[in-house]
Amino acid sequence: MKIEKVIKDIQDINGYMGSAILNQSGETIYIDENQTIDLAFSSSIFNDTFRALTSASLDIGLSKLIRLETETDEGTVFLIYANKKQTIFSIFDSKGNISLAKMILSQLIK
C-alpha cells in the first residue's frame, strides 16, 4: 500500500478531518494531524479497541474484523479498516461523504 496514494484519496473526500496509518503492532507510521482532535492518541485508543473486538469475534467463533465505524453525538465519524499489515484510522464529519470514504477505504485495504 502506498501511503501517499491512500492519504491523497481520502483527503479529497468531503468531510475529511484527519487520518493515521498504523502498522501491525499498533505503531503510527503516518499521521495527518487534525487541529481539534489528538490523532495520535485517538488512533491508538481506537486501534486497541478494534483489536479487542477482533479478539472477541474470534472467541465466539467468527472471523477477524476488517472494519469498524462509530459516530459521536456531535456527528464525528470514526472509520477503521484493517488488513494483516496495516490499519487505517480516519475521521470525518458526518455531513461528509461517508459512503464514498467507506468504498475507498475498503478498496485501499485489500
Describe this structure in words.
The protein is of the alpha+beta class and 110 residues long. It is built from 3 helices and 5 strands. It has a 5-stranded antiparallel β-sheet, with helices on both faces. Strand 4 and strand 5 form a beta hairpin. The protein starts with a helix and ends with a helix.
Number-wise, the strands total: 5
**Mean pLDDT level:** 89
Helix proportion of residues, in percent?
Answer: 25-40%
| Global morphology | globular
Q: What topology, given as strand order, has the largest sheet?
A: 2-1-5-4-3
Biggest pleated-sheet summary: 5 strands, antiparallel
Which stretches are low in confidence, meaning pLDDT under 50 for 5 or more residues running? Answer: none
Give the radius of gyration: 13 Å
First CA to last CA: what distance? Answer: 9 Å
Question: Count the helices. How many?
Answer: 3
Portion in strands: 25-35%
